[in-house]
Amino acid sequence: MITASPPCPCGRKPSAISTRTLSYADCCGRWHQGPQALQAPDAEALMRSRYSAFVLGLPDYLLATWHPRTRPGQIEPDEPGLRWLGLTVKRHQAQDADHATVEFVARCKLAGRAQRLHELSRFERDAQGRWLYVDGSSP
Q1: Is 1 domain-assigned?
Q2: What is the model's pTM?
């Protein structure tokens, strides 16, 4: 019996007019594991894969894709009952070949209260060509 991969937590669609969400295997799953692991092609794909890693509880991936200059020693686990609700990418902008920003809104619910994280994240490409998360701020 063949089972289909579930929809990707990041919510990426194959096109702007599509109502279908890409499968996890065809979207962020390929950056999380397998031959393409840690090789997101651009800052937006990396940001989406990091959101999915938060949803799926993949702290090793989050640390591996965090720039060593700003990386914390560890990722704290989510608070009990936290539920991720969705991601909206507002803007992806390349500053040059090795620097980019992504503005996004991530929604979650904790203890019955809806919350939003609106961030402008900075990304940098390392010497091996991998995109890494540097830091983020409120837009």
Answers
A1: no
A2: 0.93
